[in-house]
# Entry
Amino acid sequence: MFHGSIPALITPFKNGQFDAPAYQKLIEWQIASGSSALVPCGTTGESPTLSHEEWREVIKTCVKTAAGRVPVIAGTGSNSTAETIARTQEAEKLGANAALVVVPYYNKPTQEGLYQHFKAVHDATNLPIIVYNVPGRTVANISSETLARLAQLPRIAGTKDATANLERPVHERASCGDDFCFLSGDDGTTLAYLAMGGHGCISVTANIAPRESAELYAAWQRGDMASAGRLRDQLAELNSLLFCEANPTPVKYIASLMGLCALEYRLPLLAPSAENQTKLRAAAERMGLLKQKAA
# Structure
């Protein structure tokens, strides 16, 4: 169902408010550059700091701007099952094509609790659900066995795996079936994840290098390993530096240099340190990103 390079979109702010024109401009550039779907209100979109009305406006703007040209996978997860259900139902009404639902954070549920959480969301909504496993942020790791149980439910459509554990997709493909969608959540291992049976990447890097990210997947699909390897190596430094501080601090800094957004964050996030700004700017210049400013 979902494949290729899928940016987890930043949320532009201007004077403390959601900057809808900048967001629309970013989306148009992403689609023109070959991104195959869009994720509004994920971690990279600073979703924990958005008010409910802002969250709704971001989803609505993304759906309206995409206008059916690419799918919209709305971030709807919470550590409250009831809140996740409500947001997923609302995202469906707003026209999203699927929901990205993070493993509940902070509560530290058992595997049975995780299963019951996702099952409750599944049973109460009609959208396809992508299970987002990111234990580095949630302090909860959904097991391959639990994911296989969830895959038996008709609308649990796939997983975003941000563990960087390249053994997982091999074992999970065997237990989840050929129709289950496997998306990496780790830019640095995208090509390796594809080689292990993945279908694409929900990407941070694609916010600022969408064409290169999309071309890497296209090269893999057509069996052009030389081009895929070249693009992997070209993106390697950037993939690493974008996590020199908490995401989305670094990617939003480079996006601001490219004219994609103002350099604004929501507390508790701040702009990168002066040292990291120097490193990020230099990497962006080496890749020629600052010459690719969206029109």
The chain has one domain: 4-222. Residues 40 and 59 are 6 Å apart (CA to CA). Residues 4-222 form a domain with the TIM Barrel fold (CATH 3.20.20.70).
